[in-house]
Amino acid sequence: MRGRWIRYSDKELAWLEQHSALVIGEYHRRFIARFGREDVAPTHLQALRKRKGWATGRTGRFEKGQPGWNKGKRCPEGVGGRHPNARRTQFRPGQLSGKAALNRKPVGTERISKDGYRERKIHDGLPFQSRWRAVHLLNGEALHGPLPPGQALKCLDGDKQNTDPANWLAVPRALLPRLNGRHGRNFDAAPAELKPLILAIAQLEHGAREARKRKAA
Fold this sequence. Notes:
By secondary structure, this protein is of the alpha+beta class. It has 2 domains: 43 residues; 113 residues, Homing Intron 3 (I-Ppo) Encoded Endonuclease, Chain A. Helices cover 35% and strands 9% of the residues. The chain has 7 helices and 5 strands. The strands form 2 sheets. Strands 1-2-3 form a 3-stranded antiparallel beta sheet. It starts with 9 loop residues before the first helix and ends with a helix.
């Protein structure tokens, strides 16, 4: 059943239009105080304002720089100064949920990288890309210390998952292209008996090139 139609005098309508930007509670309070219309509820004024298309100037959104409605207000007292329900549902530092919790791997977990190297998770911090490191690098650093700048570890037997430090040789990074097929040789795919020869030739070529560079300088 529809409610009855509320009628307003011209004077009331003029006042309502002039003050239409007020929030509805204050709008209604002032109208009742001025005209004594106890038969008019806030919902009536809200509906009237919409029918007339009187703009209030409010979008219902927080504007840039506008303080939040609860700024400076304390949460109701409870356990630890917060409401118990708030404490039960709030996120804590390091807390994971959903897929992140399901996919999380503990520190010490090992995996095989897309390039075929064994990797180990060493921490849960940031940045994300530093959480995993190649196991052969960790083993080499534990035995010999950090690699000097410009050096890399080269797998000797072609098995990248063999992380024995004896299976990895520190070489200049500039030497690696001479072993990967760029110069007509493929160290990793070569028979085991040819690998030492290929490595020795690549080292001689690299040494000769570096000597020419120093002489030219």
